[in-house]
Amino acid sequence: MPDSLNALLPHRPPMLWIDALTRCTETEATATACFTPDHFAMTDGSVSEVTLIECVSQTVAAAAGHRARPGAKSNRLGSGMLVAVSNFRIESSPPLGRTLQIEVREIKRFGLMLLVSGLISCEGRNLASGELTLYA
Fold first, then answer.
1. What are phi and psi of 30, to 5 degrees?
2. Torsion over CA: 23, 20, 123, 91 (sign)
3. Per-residue confidence of the chain (136 residues) as pLDDT tens digits?
4. Is the dihedral of CA 29, 35, 40, 45 positive or negative?
5. Structure pTM?
6. How far apart are CA 73 and CA 16, in angstroms?
7. Residue 5 and residue 60: Cα distance in Å, rounded?
């Protein structure tokens, strides 16, 4: 996708944790991320659970930014906020230096409230999954 993350998200390094938005439809999106030992998001030598949740949240935000760009069907872009995390399970810690795939899918929207499911995988192996409620 040609959009720069800087044009899609308010986040800037070191708080920008996804590397690219690779796919975006009206209800789904995919992004990538890669963590190295010196990355700001590392805690005690590994990627924390909070970091994985934030990667899902940033993927949702990047998709909203992509959908709101000039000429897109939706031009709804505002400030967003993570409201709740539900049933988020970490199956295994992400490997360092490998590309993670972050997939999000809209489950339900009620006004400005959005419920999404997220899945993080690496090389075909599921690492984490759960649901986020966002004010978007």
1. -135, 140
2. negative
3. 556 898 888 888 899 999 999 999 999 999 999 999 999 888 888 998 899 999 999 999 999 999 988 776 654 555 678 999 999 999 999 999 999 999 999 999 999 899 999 999 999 999 999 999 999 7
4. positive
5. 0.92
6. 26
7. 12
Question: Between β-strands 42-43 and 46-47, what pairing exists: parallel, antiparallel or unpaired?
Answer: antiparallel
Amino acid at 82: L
Question: Closest by alpha carbon to 23, among 80, 79, 57, 67?
Answer: 67
Structural domains of the chain, ranges and CATH numbers in brackets: 5-135 (3.10.129.10)
**Cβ distance 62 to 21 under 8 Å?**
yes
How far apart, in whole angstroms, are the C-alpha atoms of residue 95 and residue 101?
Answer: 12
Collapsed DSSP state (helix, strand, coil) of residue 64: helix
Q: State the Rg of the chain over Cα.
A: 14
10 Å Cβ neighbour count for 94?
23
